[in-house]
């Protein structure tokens, strides 16, 4: 297939991706492969994602080496986790091959298209999936770049023929500033990515700069129940702001209830005398908020209400977002991405709403050493509030290229802090020992939640499929 005529870098024929196994870079590799580009890439380890890329016939290397860069490469794309002194990036500079970060490249792709960008500390992936699925059902035929996997799209990318692009916009390293959005959805704003942002004001500044990229003809959709988002928007004064939430005058969340693993909630729209009722088959008040964001965004694009309702009613979730993998005997196994303090307790609370009176085993993998140290008190408090019947803590996940210096902490140190608040906790130093611990105890619990943004999902996968390697 040919690339769209208005695509500004159509002259690039051979593209090499460094960090291709990441959820973000892999979707770009798939996109360009779809349009007939010659693709190669490198990553430090094999994964489900690299297996998907290999099946497409993409050449992969599992070591970073200058010789990986093809002789005819005319573009090198790198993940934000890849440092400047990476041998492949150095080779590109030596050979005068153009380098580009993934979001700068996404910006190049989308700048000539109507683009909806979904940003926020939590809820980005779910909201992106919901918006994309609704627009697909409504006939927009959108292209969607998501930081998770959607079953209906068989991965982290949907390629459509329409002019509308839906992008999950990551604030890490301010990378979302590479985009040119026509509409922005802000789910919430919290302190995160401590290896980059100095403080919450720094985060707010980044979001403010991002939102200001939307022209007066565009749309800003935000969660007014989130005080930080509200504060940021108060200083921008965009002419087309649309709020959603319990306190909103635009799209107001009314009554919510959980009945037999079904969430029902009512929404009142500005200018309408009646309320609309929606249903969700995924748990958690946070998912109601995500759905509310999707409702607000797609209604702004004049999607009929019945299409929104039916799509949300059929929504079953996405990869590692309270993903029910199956059962081991009578025990349900769930894989979840939660790793921020504000997400941990609410995820377990959501589980208790859908799985009432269940005994819960929580397996938690902290994310990044420095981040864990800086968020220590909040992480411990959130794990305590979760009130799991038993807690397993693993070694902290180290993100390649983002841990620098020794000013972080070790998993055993984190566990010692946790165990002072949570006596029913244990420490497992790696994935294999964590898996064995879960395997030995699983019969005593109704629900196992394997939680974290790193590679802890492999433990959950192996519980369901013993042949899965960790």
TrEMBL record:
Residues 118-297 form the Mur ligase central domain. Residues 14-111 form the Mur ligase N-terminal catalytic domain. GO terms for molecular function: ATP binding; tetrahydrofolylpolyglutamate synthase activity; UDP-N-acetylmuramate-L-alanine ligase activity. Gene3D superfamilies: Mur ligase, C-terminal domain, Mur-like, catalytic domain, NAD(P)-binding Rossmann-like Domain. The keyword Cytoplasm applies. It is found in: Cytoplasm. Pathway: Cell wall biogenesis; peptidoglycan biosynthesis. PROSITE patterns: FOLYLPOLYGLU_SYNT_1 (PS01011). Keywords: ATP-binding, Cell cycle, Cell division, Cell shape, Cell wall biogenesis/degradation, Cytoplasm, Ligase, Nucleotide-binding, Peptidoglycan synthesis. ATP binds at residues 120-126. One of its GO terms (cellular component) is cytoplasm. Its EC number is 6.3.2.8. Residues 320-454 form the Mur ligase C-terminal domain. It catalyses: UDP-N-acetyl-alpha-D-muramate + L-alanine + ATP = UDP-N-acetyl-alpha-D-muramoyl-L-alanine + ADP + phosphate + H(+). The keyword Nucleotide-binding applies. GO terms for biological process: cell division; cell wall organization; peptidoglycan biosynthetic process; regulation of cell shape. InterPro entries: Folylpolyglutamate_synth_CS (IPR018109), Mur-like_cat_sf (IPR036565), Mur_ligase_C (IPR004101), Mur_ligase_C_dom_sf (IPR036615), Mur_ligase_cen (IPR013221), Mur_ligase_N (IPR000713), MurCDEF_pg_biosynth (IPR050061), UDP-N-AcMur_Ala_ligase_MurC (IPR005758). Pfam families: Mur_ligase, Mur_ligase_C, Mur_ligase_M. Belongs to the MurCDEF family. Cell wall formation. This is UDP-N-acetylmuramate--L-alanine ligase. The gene is murC.
